[in-house]
Predict the 3D structure of the following.
Amino acid sequence: MSLPCWIKKKIPPAGALREMKELLRSLSLHTVCEEAACPNIGECFSQRTATFMILGDRCTRSCRFCGVRKENPAPPDPEEPGNIARAVRKLHLEYVVVTSPARDDLADGGASHFAFTIKEIKKLAHGIKVEVLVPDFNGSLSSLRRVIEAGPYVLNHNLETIPRLYPEVRPEADYARSLNLLKQSRKLDPDIYTKSGLMVGLGENEKELIEVMKDLRGVGCDILTIGQYLRPSSQNIPVKEYVPPEKFKEYEETGKSLGFLSIASSPFVRSSYQAKEIWTYPQKLRNMCQSSTDYFLKNLTNKGK
């Protein structure tokens, strides 16, 4: 299937890419930008930002859409949380996204390593916001609690696709388990923002996608990203459809009508793409809602005096 005209990205300056890669290699760090062959890598690296991938570059699962290698992973690197913090300081980041491959070989699924990394980043400055894009931890509530107690600002977990396609696309994942992770996150910390991401072009239809969006709102998910699936290699599942930009716009409008605080929907959107900008709007909206509630309660109290 040939690429349509809207699936194009500008080539970034080579110097910007080289500078970021040298910094990452000097600290023995991985990014999902590189490991998952993200089409936005040039844009993000040229802006001196990246999504850090902790717990190595090997995954214990065999999702057919993902470009991350499926081999025996190495033990967690105890120096990694500190090295992430050093990179954050050198890049002057105010908003940091941290993810990992699935690590089913670890007793807690890597939750403690997430927690250590969050804490190291937050030591740098009080105002730094950390978004974590976590695996499902095999449904372990104690692992999820360990991550949330470390204080991330946004808890992101991707549903990726519709439930009908899970056996083909995500055979070791479980749709209900992933939904429940987002639901439990809000129970553990009512103030946390929750976020999820979907891919289109895998064989889903519009009705099925909208049902997933409703399911996400049903568990209180605040933020949603929708992007076009692009095949990382010939070993991955083929693209079934290239969804036109106008359909992404329709999905965005539907998401807004369902009550998502923020939704990013376009061909090159990825779960952590422009994460700071996507997060800023729901923060402002929630603050506005809280201010309106405070104003109402204050006037109500005054009237009763």
User: Anything to note?
Assistant: The chain has one domain: 14-303. The first helix runs from residue 14 to 26. The beta strands are 30-31, 51-53, 95-99, 129-133, 154-156, 193-200, 223-228, 262-265. The chain is about 45% helix and 10% strand.
